[in-house]
# Entry
Amino acid sequence: MIKFTIITLFREAIEPYLKTSMMWKAVDKGLAEFEFVNLREFGLGPHKSVDDTPYGGGDGMLLRCEPVFAAIEFVKAKDPEAKVILPTPVGMTWNQELAREFAFHSGPCPAGTNARAAALRNAPNQNANSHYIILCPHYEGYDERILAIVDYNISLGKYVLTGGELPALIIIDSVVRLIPGVLGGETSAEIESFSNGDNLEYPQYTRPEDFRGMKVPEVLLSGNHGEIAKWREEHSGTSLL
Ligand code: ADE
# Structure
């Protein structure tokens, strides 16, 4: 069972996706659990404020430490082992290798622990009880001291989004789909694009054989499994998917 606790002010932006398709199936099969914590409940004062202006001046508002620490400590009081992920444009760039580490090994090993990482790689399905807390900042930034309670800073890429909700969904989706039993065919996540790093999948076709003059390669219709495997090997990495 993999569990994600999402700390956000905008649950409604995230929940519909998690109630759809594969993410919902993962929950239904008991393979994943999603939980929401409303950051506002940990806000300060009568207005339950979670942000404030930056010291030294500047535009915009920053997420304050107190509500964030209180919300994370609330979750950790029930599960001290839970690891905290902060989506931020200045974090480690998310990729398939990281998704696998989170799916199978409770997150990437710290630097210098290659032996342990290798051992874990040879013993997949170590994710028996992984629990990740994803903190979704939603203002112009956050107080730097928040990083003290964060285990992983994750960037989706070199661009800036308005909040952590979209990154949270991308992280969750790309991790949960790797959990054995989530996708229809047990092995489809393993054999498809990027599963072993960044090797790309071969092109695939379904009916019809001829669509507006664009034909399915003859070999794929031949029934010759050896030839098909050879063709796929030769063409791996050419799909645009
Ligand atoms: N929050 C804002 N921009 C982001 C990005 N590119 N990746 C992760 N979190 C973010």
The first strand starts at residue 2 and ends at 8. The chain has a mean pLDDT of 88. The chain has two domains: 2-176, 202-241.
